[in-house]
Amino acid sequence: MDKIIDFNLLGAVIPKSITKYPQRGNQNPRACETKGGMINSIGIQSNGIDYYLKEIVPYYKQYRAPLISSISAESIDEFVEMSEIIGAVPKVSALELNISCPNLKSDGRAFGMSDDVTHHLVSRVRKVTDKPILVKLTPNVTDIRSIALAAEGAGADSLIVANTPLAMAIDIHSRQPKIGNIMGGVIWAGY
Ligand SMILES: Cc1cc2nc3c(=O)[nH]c(=O)nc-3n(C[C@H](O)[C@H](O)[C@H](O)COP(=O)(O)O)c2cc1C
Hints:
Catalytic activity: (S)-dihydroorotate + NAD(+) = orotate + NADH + H(+)
Protein name: Dihydroorotate dehydrogenase B (NAD(+)), catalytic subunit
Number of helices: 4
Strand content: 15-25%
CATH topology: TIM Barrel
Distance between the termini: 22 Å
Bound molecules: flavin mononucleotide
CATH superfamily: Aldolase class I
EC number: 1.3.1.14
CATH class: Alpha Beta
Subunit structure: Heterotetramer of 2 PyrK and 2 PyrD type B subunits.
Radius of gyration: 17 Å
Mean pLDDT: 92
Low-confidence stretches: none
CATH architecture: Alpha-Beta Barrel
Organism: Tigheibacillus halophilus
């Protein structure tokens, strides 16, 4: 990416979301074109937090652009644990909480689909870091305003609107989705 654009020209850089443990992400294909644009189903490929601290953060030290770390976790406790560790790293200017990922310790819905869960998650992270907290909302809700207000009320400094809207493209010949993994009976792919 730094061969395409000079990172020092950017206001900040948010590299790919990090998970606690390494995970492979979804099988290919992970993206497909549609008439209206492009849909993706990436599944957050990540080398895990240890690799992030050892390799990714030091790499960004060569750039003036502030580094914002995007955190993706499977439970509120894991968000808190990761935020405390990453928030303490001097090069990291702010944390992005990717609350569009599923809450696997609960009902599997994205954290950001509930104002109560959002409020609880952000309040707990607020207690373990003084760094600015950016909350990345999911658009896959009935009323995003209540979730946004819950995040703000819990101490979010900024909102990112928004992650990928759910979408599906069907291959009319195989009658199967063109991309996407099946989680709890739902095909997850986004526009
Ligand atoms: C290839 C690809 C990888 C993405 N990876 C992440 C990610 O790691 N973390 C995240 O929060 N969002 C991720 N997203 C979502 C985008 O950051 C963005 O929120 C989404 O594409 C909607 O914005 P847009 O309409 O401008 O594309 C990814 C999207 C794509 C297409």
